[in-house]
Write a structure and sequence with these properties.
heterodimer, A: mainly alpha, 12 helices, globular, B: mainly alpha, two-stranded antiparallel ribbon
């Protein structure tokens, strides 16, 4: 085996880990960056997206439309949750965590009761290709591109649209934005829906690659939390670089000792980073800039 | 002697609800009923009550860290699990002779506390607070669960103790008190009941004293305003770390007693659901008061068990709804609200009488 295959294999694993971290974290990061609120039901929004995607694909729709449906349904559920619960708790961030945890319990157990302990999955599309002695799934490459696409789309949304300007104003000084006529409650609702939709998108994209069980959200949230904690409050200065750094840690540890050690590596990384950079990477970058 | 008496004066104070002869009279009455309870009940029901009591320790630990200290920790079940596994590993390796189970109890709690020192050092001295603290502790807990769940193979053992992956460890010896002639084995009925009840009363009263001492006042001051507490010259990191470690030890005690009670411990005792339950008890009871936490935990646990019997799968949904509604409607807790209302009523009545 020559060096090129090794390099490709390492790159492939890095890309896979990066896509997983960024896709599962960006919905959480958008909500956290906006409202300082950690949505513990994030994993259940991912589960919702995956289930809707699988259900629509079983109903005969092609996979991309199924993923779109999963995204939209999750975003809608996000709006409902924001109106019913989150809206009343903006001045109490710790209580929001507790309440969203309650929601997560309800969603997991409710899905178990209504849909059953497992749901028929969706086959992984596109097949695989061969490099050297190993075969690689094309869909993983698609996921990596999707992660980059989501980051680009978020950048465009927050920098080039009217919603993005209003949202950034609301992040910086909510009272000032409200005084200038921005409907901050609407902005909060839309941001929460956006975060929930991104979670649904992650669920939809990963639906073909994993078993659909009501507790599947739990497989995403640890990685999502770790990425957001290390990244800090900003999606572009935080989540993307944190995804990059953690993907290196995870893919190296995984190929060295197995999947579990990949996750332990993530955990050790997060504990060390919070000790050194309490405000995450984005806090560090922003402090350097000012 | 004087210092000892002043400790008892700390049983009442600004940080705990309940004072005066009425409260302590009621306390003595409840204690008397609890002491007499095994006399007119059967072994199974008593064992079940022990199960309830076991959980009160972890609820008190969360009350201390979250309610008094203001740091939301999702990691209490991690300490619960560490101590539970610790007890199992120690007793399976060294047996139960010469009162070693009691040594193992203390050692397992100490292991959990040591782990808390390590984790807490990184968190509090890294000045993580608020939501990040919750996330880091939750990540640690989930990581431990995943780690323990994959230890199924025979290569995962510590001494003679197999970790057994998702099925968990079982068949560790119960607590045994060495006694001339025949050692007393505390199975999960009357014997264990009195031990756990004694521990519970001790921990409850000790925490009351601790919270009404200057240490407790500083902890509450940090919760109310960390910057102000720091300006007043307190090293808040140290106080938070100590609170965290005491809480971890209590959660560890809960874990050991759970392991002793059922003679098994599994990784799912550290999972998402397991971590959510103590939070629900404490939030519904009233997180900023010890008495409310104890009452709330026992009430919610009993309700949960009744629900599990009649509609097993809906019990968790109901718990989730209860948690969300409590946070929305009565953020200070239902039991605490009722107790404060009773207190106001009583003082109004005494004023009218006087």
């Amino acid at each position: 085996m020559d060096i090129a295959t090794h390099v490709f294999s390492a790159l492939y694993q890095f890309g896979d880990a990066f896509a997983f971290l960024v896709l599962s974290a960006c919905g959480l990061a958008v909500i956290f960056g906006m409202m300082g609120v950690i949505n513990l039901a994030h994993g259940e929004f991912i589960m919702c997206g995956a289930y809707v995607t699988a259900a629509t694909v079983h109903a005969g729709l092609p996979l991309p439309l199924g993923i779109l449906a999963g995204t939209l349904v999750s975003a809608l559920v996000g709006v409902v949750v924001e109106l019913a619960v989150i809206r009343h708790l903006y001045d109490r961030p710790l209580d929001t965590i507790v309440a969203t945890w309650g929601l997560s319990l309800i969603a997991t157990q409710g899905t178990l009761i209504m849909v059953g302990s497992t749901m028929a999955g969706v086959g992984t599309p596109f097949g695989s290709f061969q490099v050297g002695d190993y075969s690689y799934s094309i869909y993983r490459i698609v996921l990596f591109c999707a992660a980059l696409g989501v980051l680009a789309a978020l950048y465009a949304l927050f920098n080039w649209t009217r919603f993005g300007v209003l949202a950034r104003a609301t992040i910086q000084v909510p009272h000032m934005a409200a005084a200038l006529g921005v409907d901050t409650r609407l902005i909060y609702s839309l941001t929460f829906a956006c975060g929930a939709g991104l979670a649904g998108l992650a669920g939809g994209l990963y639906a073909p690659t994993m078993t659909l069980v009501p507790t599947m959200g739990a497989t995403f949230i640890m990685e999502a939390f770790v990425t957001v904690v290390i990244g800090g409050a900003d999606v572009f200065l935080g989540t993307a670089p944190a995804g990059g750094v953690l993907a290196v840690v995870k893919s190296v540890m995984t190929s060295w000792q197995g999947q579990l050690f990949g996750q332990i590596g993530l955990l050790v990384a997060v504990i060390i980073v919070v000790r050194v950079l309490p405000k995450g990477i984005s806090g560090f970058v922003l402090r350097e800039r000012t | 002697m004087n210092g000892f008496l002043s400790l008892f004066r700390r049983l009442e104070g600004p940080q705990t609800v309940g004072r005066g002869p009425a409260f302590w009279g009621l306390f003595a009455l409840v204690l008397a009923v609890a002491l007499a309870y095994p006399l007119f009940s059967d072994g199974y029901t008593v064992g079940n009550t022990v199960y309830f009591f076991v959980w009160v320790f972890i609820a008190l630990s969360l009350c201390l860290i979250w309610g008094y200290g203001g740091s939301l920790s999702f990691g209490q079940t991690a300490f619960f699990g560490i101590a539970g596994y610790g007890y199992g590993i120690l007793t399976i390796n060294f047996g139960s002779a010469y009162g070693f189970t009691l040594v193992a109890l203390v050692a397992a709690v100490a292991i959990a506390a040591l782990f808390a020192v390590l984790l807490g050092y990184f968190m509090f001295f890294g000045r993580i607070a608020g939501v990040f603290l919750g996330i880091v502790t939750l990540a640690v807990t989930l990581m431990l669960e995943r780690f323990m769940a994959q230890t199924a193979g025979p290569e995962w053992h510590i001494g003679a103790a197999r970790l057994n992956g998702f099925n968990g460890m079982s068949a560790m010896p119960p607590l045994t008190i060495p006694w001339p002639g025949e050692p007393i084995v505390l199975f999960a009925d009357v014997g264990l009941y009195y031990l756990v009840l004694g521990l519970l009363v001790f921990v409850y009263l000790a925490l009351r004293i601790l919270m009404n001492s200057s240490f407790g006042n500083i902890i509450v001051a940090i919760r109310e305003n960390p910057e102000r507490a720091e300006m007043l010259g307190y090293d808040i990191r140290k106080y938070q770390l100590i609170t965290f470690v005491i809480g971890a030890a209590l959660a560890g005690l809960s874990g050991v007693l759970y392991t002793v009670w059922g003679q098994y411990i599994t990784p799912s005792s550290m999972g998402m659901t397991a971590a959510a339950l103590p939070l629900i008890w404490v939030a519904v009871g009233g997180r900023s008061d010890l008495t409310s936490t104890v009452i709330g935990t026992l009430v919610v646990l009993a309700a949960f068990q009744a629900l599990t019997i009649y509609g097993s799968q809906y019990a968790l949904v109901f718990m989730g709804v209860l948690l969300v509604l409590t946070v929305l409607i009565a953020p200070n807790g239902l039991v605490l609200g009722v107790m404060n209302w009773l207190g106001r009523l009583a003082s109004r009545l005494t004023q009218r009488a006087g």
